[in-house]
Design goal:
The complex is a heterodimer of chains A (77) and B (262). In chain A, 64% of the residues lie in helices and 0% in strands. Chain A is built from two helices and no strands. Chain B has 262 residues and is mostly helical. In chain B, helix 5 crosses helix 6, helix 5 runs antiparallel to helix 7 and helix 7 packs antiparallel against helix 8. Classes of the chains: A mainly alpha (77), B mainly alpha (262).
Chain lengths: 77, 262
């Protein structure tokens, strides 16, 4: 079992952050969350004004754009 | 014979009702779910984990016995391959919690394929939900302790962006960091265990349904039961994977809470 070597015993703040800590999951969550949140807001606006879904569409597109922006800022270099 | 006719009498297709097992205490009471097979299984799982670790660490040897080696391997796996890999050096402090979580989920999931037990407590949303709440409260608490409450929420909610996009981004951050996380943790585990149990039920009961509908379908019934065995092995894969995924995601959330601004 080569995996049994105990890690170096520095428990402080030093040491590099691990390279991949669930970044893929976070990215997918951002995309879906963006679409759902702003699409949902648009849907509510649609219901309020009685429109056919134009605001939901705009909201979803804006939300995806926000999600992509967040991925770039939070997960990009 | 009695068992067989009970299986034959079980209705097909299986429904959610099949997850609500009869009450044990008081014996056979209707609509009473305080003490059922599920309750027993959870206690058995907890007792088994505690007893196993107490027994294997009672007299630790420098050259480990087989039991001690096994216990150390599990702990070493979670500590080195999950805690430290995901969180970094600070992850060692979280290894005990993550190992407990991992083993609790693993053993409870495993009941889903143990012959004659064959239902996992985690196929009831209550258990994954409570586990998710524990992880959720823990990573928020850790973040607040590490950064201070105000700074933590500022760090978690306000991304580095020009002010005019912030109104667009903050709801997304809130949604994905504080609403989706506990929900997806709980639902992922629950749905996998629920679907697995349902799948095995469909294939087993389907075999009986076919053979009792028309004896000429007997070969198909046999095929269905053979597939049940195959699916049980697939279930084993799902069981281990879901225990691992739940632990890894918890570790990843803790890492996010501890991460420094950059």
């Amino acid at each position: 079992m080569t995996g049994q070597k105990p890690p170096p015993d520095n428990r402080g703040d030093d040491g590099p952050t691990p390279p991949d800590s669930g970044a893929g999951m976070t990215a997918v969550t951002y995309l879906i969350a963006g679409m759902l949140v702003w699409g949902g807001v648009g849907w509510l606006v649609d219901r309020h004004f009685g429109t056919e879904g134009i605001f939901a569409g705009i909201g979803a597109v804006l939300g995806i754009a926000g999600g992509v922006y967040l991925i770039v800022r939070r997960l990009g270099a | 014979m009695i068992v067989q006719s009970a299986v034959l009498a079980a209705e097909f297709p299986p429904s959610v009702e099949d997850f609500y097992l009869p009450s044990i205490l008081p014996w056979g009471a209707e609509n009473n779910y305080w003490f059922t097979k599920i309750t027993v299984l959870v206690w058995v799982a907890v007792a088994a984990i505690i007893v196993f670790f107490l027994a294997s660490y009672r007299k630790p040897q420098l050259v480990p016995t087989k039991k001690q080696w096994f216990a150390e391997s599990i702990y070493g796996f979670v500590r080195n391959n999950i805690a430290v890999d995901m969180i970094g050096p600070r992850g060692v402090a979280f290894a005990p919690y993550l190992t407990t979580l991992f083993l609790f989920i693993l053993v409870n999931n495993f009941f889903g394929i143990v012959p004659f037990v064959q239902i996992s407590p985690n196929s009831h949303i209550a258990f994954p939900a409570i586990l998710a709440v524990i992880s959720y409260v823990m990573f928020i608490y850790i973040g607040m302790r590490h950064h201070g409450p105000l700074k933590y929420f500022k760090h978690a909610l306000i991304p580095p962006a020009p002010w005019f996009i912030l109104p667009l981004l903050i709801p997304i951050e809130f949604f994905s960091n504080f609403l989706v996380r506990p929900f997806s943790l709980a639902v992922r585990l629950f749905a996998n265990m629920f679907a697995g149990h349902m799948l095995l039920l469909v294939f087993t009961l389907g075999g009986f349904a076919m053979i009792s509908a028309n004896p000429a379908l007997a070969p198909v019934s046999v095929l269905s039961w053979v597939l049940t065995i195959g699916l049980t092995f697939l279930e084993f894969l799902v069981i281990c994977l879901q225990a691992y995924v739940f632990t890894v995601l918890t570790a990843s959330y803790v890492q996010g809470a501890l991460a420094d601004e950059h």
